[in-house]
Amino acid sequence: MTEDSAPRVRIVHLTGPAFRALADGDLAAANAASPVPVSDYLAGPECRSVWEMRSRQWDEDPASAAWVTGVIWDDDQRVAVGRAGFHEAPDSTGMVEIGYAVDPAYRRRGYARAALEALLERAAGDSRVHRVRVSIRPDNEASYRLAVQYGFRKVGEQWDDEDGLEYCYERPAVHIGELIT
After folding, report:
1. With bands split at pLDDT 50, 70 and 90, how would you rate the model's confidence at 180?
2. How buried is residue 141: exposed, middle or buried, by Cβ count under 10 Å (0-12/13-18/19+)?
3. Are 167 and 136 in contact (CB under 8 A)?
C-alpha cells in the first residue's frame, strides 16, 4: 500500500452512554449516543468486554474518555472500521498502552497501521507520555510484525485473563519519523 492509498482515520472518542450501550450490545442505543455511526461488530460479542471496561472507567473518571478506546473512523468512506485507543490516561511513569482491533470485514486494508500511527502521534504530542506499550498474544503474528516496524521491542510478558499469555513491547513516545532504531 502506498502512502497515497493509506486510509485516513481518526479515533472518535465516546461518552459513558455510548460505552454502556456498546457493552450491552444495544446497537440502536449506541448509535443514538455515539458521534459517528457504529457497526454490528462494535456492538457484538467480540468487543463487549472492552466496552464494559471503558464504561466502568467512564463512571469513575469521565475525563478518561479522551484517552481510552474509541471508534476507528475512516474519514473518506465515512464508516466505523474498528476500535482503538489507550487502556487509560498516562500512568505515573508516563506510559500508555495501546489497544486496537479492526472489524474482520475491513482487515488487510491498512486500518491497523493507520490507527497505530494516529495513537503513536497522539502519545508523542503529549509531554506527559514517555513510553508506549503494546501487549500481543504470541500467535498474533500480524500485530507483532506491525509493532516491530514502529520500533517496539520486547520487554517482558504478562498473563491476561481474557487473552492469555501476552508479550509486552515498548518504545519511546516520539514522533514516528524521530525514532532511531
Report:
1. low
2. exposed
3. yes
